[in-house]
Amino acid sequence: MSDRKTLDERQQMSDIDRLRHSCAHVMATAILRIWPDAQFAYGPPIENGFYYDFEMKHRITPDDFEKIEAEMKKIAKENQKFDYKAISRDEAKAMALSGRLGGLSERPDNPSRFKLDLIDKIPEGETISCFQNGEFIDLCAGPHVGYTSKCKNVKLMSVSSSFYLGDESKGQLQRLYGTAFENKELLEEHLVRLEEAKKRDHRRLGKELQLFHIDEAVGQGLVLWKPKGALVRRALQEFITQELDKQGYSQVFTPHIGKLDLYRTSGHFPYYQDSQYPPIAERDTLEKLADEDATCATLINGLSDGTYEGYLLKPMNCPHHIKIFGSEHRSYRDLPVRLAEFGTVYRWEQSGELGGMTRVRGFTQDDAHLFCTPDQVAAELVGCLSLVKTVLTTLGMTNYRVRVGLRDPDDSKFTGDPEKWDLAEAACRAAAATLGAPFTEEPGEAAFYGPKIDFVVKDVIGRDWQLGTVQVDYVLPERFKLEYVGADNTTHRPVMIHRAPFGSLERFTGLLIEHFEGKFPTWLSPEQVRVLPISEKFLDAAEEAATKLAEAGVRVSVDRSSDKVGAKIRNTRLERIPYMLVIGAKEVEEGTVSVRHREREDLGAKPLEEFIAEITAEIKERCL
Q1: 182: number of CA atoms within 13 Å, CB side?
Q2: Could you give the residue numbers annotated as active site?
Q3: What whole-number distance in Å separates Cα of residue 413 and Cα of residue 352?
Q4: How many other C-beta atoms are found inside a 10 Å radius of the C-beta of residue 67?
Q5: What is the number of alpha carbons within 13 Å of residue 133 lying toward its C-beta?
Q6: pTM of the full predicted structure?
Q7: Model confidence over 465-504: pLDDT tens digits?
Q8: C-beta of residue 451 within 8 angstroms of C-beta of residue 428
Q9: DSSP string spanning 307-366?
Q10: Rg for the chain, CA atoms, rounded
């Protein structure tokens, strides 16, 4: 309850959240009419809906949803008024002890134990209030809509388990989720979007299309790229590498682990240790502490305060790139130095927050760090932004917004010289302005070492994804004492720019699977062509065609099964392969292939050489 909102903050609730908050009370009323023993904890609005946590003997399942929704519609038709009442602490406790709070009537044998606990958590001097609709009355600060008639466009979504205040020791509750909108049309649009999202879910498609696998024996949040998924990843890496070569980047490789002192210098450890894997102690240290019969706390504290040396699975690539830059004498004539790496990093995410490829514990960034003079910052930022735009345009993701994350001067996490921060923020604003599109400024959203420019992309079903990012950093060059010799023959600090157009290859690929519904454009598809012989008699001709396609750089296979050609076409479309080449007697006789596309259907017969010229041009141009 440490982040408890004040009463004033609660009154700032948006209209849609006010409606959803009210629907939570209507849902509680309906549940109590069906199961009077239910004990309610709390029911807030959340993004896209609401929930209520409660305890009762009956276990809710989706089979119960229709019955609960029917009762909720009755309550909406009754047009009950939401009445506010301020009460004293003693009154609140008396109502809770009688079972009246969170109930339809007094229940002397069933006191409202969660409400009693919540009353005790209300600070002294704060107004205690309740809201009543019909026979249901609940401890609540509000706000609500005027009448339950507003709560008719609702849908129950799912049920799960939860713990009171997130504490396992306090017992398990049931949590019922619902959603609500101002009108029927908006509700139906939302439900259609959810169905579309379910159809596009990258976890399901990734399994069906054999793109990736996550295995408990390997570890949660650690992605195994299967051969087909690896081909998608390779195509993305080749694409961005070509763009990096055009801009004069140098590719580097760094280890997956580094000394703790490296991250102490950068500031990533111990300040962000909650989101990192635990440090790894040196073997000599472990043996010494074991001989001393020391506790785990001794080891952990010693690693944190520097008493013992250790290593860390790298949470960031930047300290390694900094060391590469600092390993040579640099002149202003050498700058900018642009170092790029597909570097794998490791972050500790809570198991409940992991999800497929989009929330993982190990991921590869298309990371780069640019070291430049102060007067080069503006041009380098524009180059970084143009790279992000190229990526998004090539993939057809042109519906995006830009946000500039700035520091909060009152937050101690933002380190470094305020004047340098001002310079970095001004550079980000100026660079964002060159995009020719509106951008927002968001104080407090900068990285600890500098401001950043983020691209937030809206996918085909309207969901927002934060993808490419560019950051300006005066802090880390200072921490690592980086230098170059200027035109005045004295040493200067370089400015550092961090940038990652894809961000995480895992997350980006997961997004692409959903964005394209697994129907990747030809250049990205793990398999671009499948050759389908009508019967075994034409297998040699199919193999010959496949060989010529492979020699031209096309990813191709031959369906050698004994299935009929109709089944072969159906299976190929299910695997979302862009092109099918059917070969039978007529095609062999005429020296052609019958071309079919997964979307455009039958494209007719044409010479193989003509098809090869067309598809290689399509791949080279990265057509959508």
Answers
A1: 5
A2: 318, 347, 365, 367, 369, 452, 498
A3: 26
A4: 12
A5: 32
A6: 0.83
A7: 888 899 999 999 999 999 999 999 999 999 999 999 998 9
A8: yes
A9: SS-EEEE-S-SHHHHHHHHHTS--BGGG--EEEEEEEEEE----GGG-BTTTB-SEEEEE
A10: 30
